[in-house]
Amino acid sequence: MSLRFQRLILILLTLIMLGAALLLILFNTKQNIVFFYTPSELLENNIAPDKKLRIGGYVKKSSFVKKSLNNYEFKITDNTNDIVIFYKGMLPDLFREEQGIVVEGLIDKNNNIVASKVYAKHDENYMPASIKKELEKNNQWKKNYK
Amino acid sequence: MNRAVLITPLMVLTTICLFFLIFILLGKNPNDPPSALLNKSLPIFSSTNLYDNDDTLLSDSLKGNYTLINFFASWCTPCRAEHHLFFKIQKEIPELFILGFSHKDDLGDSKKYLEEEGNPYSFVGIDRDGKIAFDFGVFGLPETFIINKDGEIIFKHTGPLTKKIIDDEISILF
Amino acid sequence: MISLIGFSALCLSSIFSCIVLIPKSILQIKIKYFLFFIRSSTFLVCLSFLSLIFAYVTSDFSNFNVFQNSHSEKPLIYKITGAWGNHEGSILLWVCMISIYGFIYSLLSKSLDSFKILVLKIQSSLFIIFCFFIIFTSNPFLVNSVIVEEGLGLNPILQDPALAIHPPMLYLGYVGFSLVFSLAIASLLKTESDQMWVLETQKWSIISWGFLTAGIALGSYWAYYELGWGGWWFWDPVENISLMPWIAGLALVHSLLMIKGEQAIQRWIVFLSILCFSLSILGTFLVRSGILTSVHSFAADASRGLFILLIFFVTTGFGFLVFLIKSPTKKNDLNLLLINKTSALIINNILMMIAVLTILIGTIYPIIIEVLTNTRISVGGPYFNSTVLPILLPGFLLMSVAPVLSWQTNKIKKFRVYVICFLILSLIITIQSYLTTFNPWGLIGLLLGSWIIVGSLISVILRYKFSFTSKYIKSINSFTAHIGVGVMIIGVTYSSVYQKEFNFNMQIGDEITIENQLLKFDEIKIVDQENYQSLRAVFSLINNNGIISYIDPGKNYYPVSKMITTEAGIYHAWLKDIYITLGSETDNQWFIKVYINPLVSFIWIGVFIMIFASIVAVIKK
Question: In Å, how far from its chain's centre is CA B99?
């Protein structure tokens, strides 16, 4: 076999593999992509029900209801609009009210979300312990201004 | 043909970098929801005027005005560094009521400090035991808050202010 | 004070490196002094890093970095690791390693002096660029402008032994590629026709690749037992980013093997070397700039992001530009013949490059889409599973036949033995998987994995006479590595395809039966530890012969940061892990998730074998 012919085959092989990879990528980017919205964007966009999406925002204050063990309902807010979330399963350790979270799930007809996953965002700034202790002593823990 | 293949990595690199550049310049962050941490109302306090023992200021009386609250002390070196900037704020935003708290400080020292550096504050309150600072959640000096007309905290900064912060974050509030 | 020492040492060290760069025409430096400057620069930057660690150990909160990331109540070990648990410190560690790699190279290299100087000059330029990055945008020695007595603590989820050594390992890998990069660029710029650099690149790329493997494995082991999600790989952007230079490094290590067939394809090697390092910087850039959010990312900072983007563009652009202009012109006399080792390696290389490309596209796709259409999307695990895996499959197939092929000729060695063994093996496996739960992916994975293992084993047995000498271990080394991969493939396939998940609500004293074993909920224990409070649910695992083991999943409460972390309870056995996470509690009912992860241990064994093989490959002949 001449070197020229070998090279041709090699190039052809590369192109075939590259083509196959591109097809896979295109197919999968259509199938496996999840859109991300804030509550306001979600309401603006009028999304068809039963679509998988992610929504990010804060857990609204005093909206958290524990319906039974591992069955929760809460609202997620961006300070202008709220979205109701239903979730069955384990909540992350960092989950609490007024904490930034991201929820993945399906949207239903009433623009509520049936969540399949809840991710809590890490809070990177903490208060020093000494002050925290004092605050707790005086029942003023809630009064932390970030 | 050969040259074209060799140029490809450079071109791919440039395209990728260009996208990143636009992305950074637009200041986007794919997972960051808007902040919900501000807009809480200020704690209730009452404080005596440093220069007049009979004059007290109540937190309620701050409502209706934009107020800047700054915690300082004569022993705090970074406070000196930011001090002159309050004159700048005073000049630029005359409607702002600038309230200073002398935090865990000897009263004589505080007075001396304000004599040396000048007094930009509309009112200097005494926070001898640090109780007011405590209610505000202050954990280090200097610390600055801005309160809107409804008595809600709309800005908070720990550490000395800089010109940049004033221009970028404070001025736009007004 | 200590901050001042650290900062001055850092500045002085970058100045020393600058002196090294002065061109010969202006200042002639003798090689003795040249090396002196390089080495003292290394000592100084190490001093700088040590002083940062010292500031952490003594909880010197007048240092802003320490104030933000440490706390006086933390145990000593996490005070030390806190030094690189944050952006500034980790970049200082990175810079320190660039310098150390240069230092070790200057000690070990046997190249001509002129080439050595060229490599060290490029290495020093990289060092200086990153030093500037530290000094101007992320200085860990900033003085705290707020007077405080206590620090802000460290994220408790990061207070973990595996995670403490994970970043340094990963960085040793990433940064190792900087030396490979320097070697490649120097080989393009050099005037002599000395081929020593290929051997040196071989050594250093294996070292970097080995460290990277260890780093990634530690990271995923951490994710396995700390995140409590039952899995060990989540296609998180940060994981993808470390995987890209890993695959590129693998391609590099393999193409360097082609010298064995005396067909060094220099151009390709140089290209891969540049690519490895640029993917490493890209990884750092994407994580540190906060563009990709994940567990590991630090706060976003636009100016920082711009600076790293600039570094990325300049170094990579410079690399590829030199590659474009001075590309090796030596005619490569590739003799493919189509059915020999060289062509198998080339096809494998192409596959690896395509895999890197698909991961890259998946990772930066959200950014491109957001810039173009302003909608936010996320590309999750399913995308990567269904694009990367099909691409890797033919690669694994090639791996299993690779030992059969020869370097120079078209002849296939001992063809019949292999075919018979493969057929018998396939038959057994197919029957076995039909009799148990059939799953096409499970079958494919098991087939490929066992083919690779058996193919390598047969070659070892047929070709080399067994002896307990280092020479023997050395000569079967590449087969050892492949056996590691095979073991890992089986582990990966089984643990993902045949994973089982159960949910229970249990009270203390309750018993459940899982796969012929009894799981009994004994008690709840609350223990105060040094810097946290731990709550543990104790389960006993019982079979016919009595209690096998206790499993204690639970939660840790960190009072300093007011955070709770989940600690999975894992029962490790050779064939399966029983993995339990503890959920919330209502009326004494605890929610419990139990995963049965078969053959997870195979993954770690496979990784160990691979790392062992790379250590053997590096050790002197």
Answer: 12
| Nearest residue in chain B measured CA to CA from A60 | B36
Domain residue limits at A91: 35-120
CA pair distance C95, C134, nearest whole angstrom:
9
* Residue C195 CB contacts under 8 Å (≥ 6 apart), including other chains: C264
Report the distance separating Cα B77 and Cα B100, nearest Å. 16
8 Å CB contact between C289 and C269: no
What pLDDT is attached to residue C408? 67
A123 to chain B, any CB pair closer than 8 A? The answer is no
Please tell me the total count of domains within chain C: 2
Chain B hits for C376, Cβ within 8 Å? 30
Residues A23 and A41 in one domain: no
Measured between beta carbons, the chain A residues lying within 8 angstroms of C591 are 69-70, 90
Q: Where are the beta strands (DSSP E) in B22-169?
A: 40-41, 46-48, 56-58, 67-72, 97-103, 123-127, 143-147, 152-158
For chain B, say whether A38 makes contact (Cβ under 8 Å): yes
Residue C289: the pLDDT is 66
Does the CB of A64 have a partner CB in chain B at under 8 Å? no
> Facing residues of C580 across strands?
C569, C594
Range of the domain at C505: 500-601
Q: Does residue A143 have a pLDDT over 50?
A: no
pLDDT attached to residue C292 = 63
Specify the CATH number for the domain of residue C571. Answer: 2.60.98
Chains that touch B (3 or more CB pairs under 8 A): A, C
* A127 with B33: Cβ contact below 8 A: no
Count of structural domains, chain A: 2
pLDDT tens figures, C409-449: 666 667 788 888 888 888 988 888 888 777 888 888 999 99
B-C interface: how many C-beta pairs under 8 angstroms? 85
Residue C567 backbone class (left: φ over 0; alpha: ψ -120 to 50; beta: rest): beta
CB distance from A79 to chain C under 8 Å?
A: no
Please state at what angle helix C161-189 crosses helix C196-226, rounded to 10 degrees: 160
pLDDT reported for residue A132: 37
- The torsion angles phi and psi of A116, rounded to 5 degrees, stand at -105, -25
Instruction: Give the per-residue pLDDT at C15.
Output: 93
> Which of C146, C321, C370 lies nearest to residue B23, judging by beta carbons?
C370
8-state DSSP, C300: P
Return the percentage of chain C with pLDDT > 90, whole number: 28
Last residue within a domain, chosen from C117, C145, C173: C145
Reduced to 3 states (helix: H, G, I; strand: E, B; else coil), residue C553 is coil
DSSP string for residues in A49-89: SS-EEEEEEEEPTT--EEEETTEEEEEEE-SS-EEEEEEES
State the average pLDDT for chain C: 84
CA distance B47 to A2: 94
Contact C354 A18 (CB under 8 A): yes
Same structural domain for residues A49 and A110?
yes
